[in-house]
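Q&A log
Question type: sequence-to-structure
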Amino acid sequence: MRIALSHTRLACLLTSLLLLGACVKTEGSTQTGPLFFTVEFTGSPVGLDEASPGSFSTTAVDYPIRITAIGRDRAQMDWNGSVKIKVTPGQLESSETVSLVGGVANTTVEVALAFDELRIWVSDEGDIETPGSFASGVAPAIHLALPTVAELQEPLGNDDESPLTHNYVPVKAFSDPQDPRELIVTSVLNDGFYVTDRSQDDGTYNSLFVFTFSRPDFVVPGARLASLAGIVSEYIGYTEMQFPTYEVESTGHFAGEPTVLDPTIVCDDSLMERWEASVVRIEDLVSDFQQAAECEDYLAYGQWPALLPGTCGGQDARVTIVNVNTVPSFGFPQCEDNLPPPALQLDYLVGILRHTAPADPPWIIDVRSCLDFPPERG
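Response status: OK
Response body:
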């Protein structure tokens, strides 16, 4: 009986609420702002036609637009106010606030680092004194080329960071309809893989590390990627792509011969950045343990310092070598009496160049396999 009574009361309550809602007056809303905005290009920017996309640009591109406030009668509204301008993907270089007078504003939106499908939209967000209507509007899509690996990698300032850091970015690969790229895998690790864009010269920021957290599926050295996308990040001074999506187009491709790294640039980060994540070759190197602590680093992390011929910036040209995960059989004797081990000379060594800011030296050669050592050492 109690259950039946509860159901009856619930039914009465719901009926009362419905009747109350039916009596609420919905006409004559007090909201006085626009219903929405139209956003139109006043010129003919490149990229309106998907078949003819514009170029990716690290510098600002101008997009003249006309913003019109539309009222509830679907006609232009005589409205004075300000709207916020936002863009995605890309970086807004012009003012983010535009004022409308009589319901209209003509302005130029400047956008850099835009790619794929650029959207420019406006919103009436109000301010501290005047609440906004949150009416919004968006311009037609602007179709733009994807960045290359080099355009993703090359820094714009002095901080050595990618200009696209923190963005989800697809890069040009073999399936790009306008500019198919020879994006070739050069090395596969337990937590990712390296790719080099063989469509352009070595030493032009054309390589990248793709961090997959665990060993990537279906990726082998010599694979050509049909597509590659992910979040661009900086990890202790090293550009990488995280949370990637990728597709292998085919395998068995030649990744190219490693280029000999010039010892005179190893102390210059701006020049070394051009080679980051690339397969390089160093020649006539000598192990350069200068103190027992460096031997301890080797035992703990498998890294050891190497001295190269000549000087860099008036100092010895030095890099760090890491081979513990790939060629653990190559090693040095234990440090004894707090003394470094005897020096060891190699005719050459090949590996992936990466940057680790806390290391000394900070530029590291990651050995891929025993084939990267001279035959008598590998």
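Response note: The two ends are 87 Å apart (CA to CA).
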